[in-house]
Amino acid sequence: MTAHTTRRRRVVVTGLGTVAATGWGVPALHTALCAGSTAIGDFDSFDHTAQRTHVAGQVPPCPDVVRRRYPQWARLANSDRFALFAADEALEQAALNLDPDCTGVFFGSSTAGLIETERYFAELVRDPSSHPRRALLVSHLVGAPAETVARHLGLTGPVETVSSACASGGLAIEQALRALRSGEVDVVIAGGADCLCMTTYSGFNSLRAVDANPCRPFRADRAGLSLGEGGAALVLETLEHATARGAQPLAELLGAGSTCDAHHMTAPQALGEWSGVALQRALEDSGLNADDIHFANVHGTGTPLNDAAEAAALKRAFAGRSLPLTATKGVIGHLLGAAGAVAAVATVLGLIDRAVYPTPGGGDPDPALSVDLVLNESRSVPSMRAGVSTSFGFGGSNAAVILGRWDAQ
Questions:
Q1: How many domains, in total, are found in the chain?
Q2: Which residue range forms the structural domain that includes residue 179?
Q3: Of these residues, 30, 48, 166, 215, which one is catalytic?
């Protein structure tokens, strides 16, 4: 990995946007994170009566005031809507007038418009002579959320979608960091978007990887993940660009690292070897020491294997040091390709608050994992400098992103 140097272009975060089961917008997510409350529960996206489990993190209905902003709203897939709203919210906070040629969109996604595709074929199966709306298939391509954002904003810079399972959002942020450092672009809208769909829900149920109750990351009696949906976006720009326009950064994107377990299609490498290397590479890339990292926003799905592997990876990367941990998925569920993006947003919020948010769910942490899981209420860390956000996906994809407080740099 490239070593950190003072001459390398620095990258800062100037805007945040989210849609999740907590609601439309960052304030709703922030409130739930601070309270340690979960938005995982009953949902009605599709018929799940035949499934083993019946909870998920469903995005609530869109407020009319949001829908009226977009003439094309009715034609968009759910995942496109999530991406569009998150990008606009982040840009509004950044107060940025975009240069279309010098702005990129780097997004992660896993299912994109798959639920609309399911509806198309369900209608066709019910009545083979019917003519379902072909518009339902427009967003089937996994790159649709990113392309929707680019069309909406008229951006002609690079538009790239990473689809590497649940690491996609983190990997998209890493690719954005590289593009900004290299001078390819001055500004990037980085994030991810995914929606609940029957294919994914059925698949995880078939793997028996889903908890019948809201997930309980790192708990002794954890029984699986909870699926969720939504989108997140971060406005990233070079420090030079932000300074020239008088912007106040929210945080600095310090480094990123990625690896592959090369081990199994669904199971993580048990000892956390290569996920630990991703963390080590992110540290090296950031130019920080392990002691500079004050908390980890963990992948934390709540499955027995993933949490155990992640605990091992953290010990490997931080020489046995027990970092305070928070798991955003306990609040909103697992957003698949968008998980790394929304975790990065939550990490920035924690840095601003100088706090590690509590992870919802009853029960004690698993003593076999020896982790410092923050519970019940936020933990204040006055000296907080930086945090790491992790994303691990099927196929062994691993991503780690390090973000720092702006006033600590």
A1: 1
A2: 11-408
A3: 166
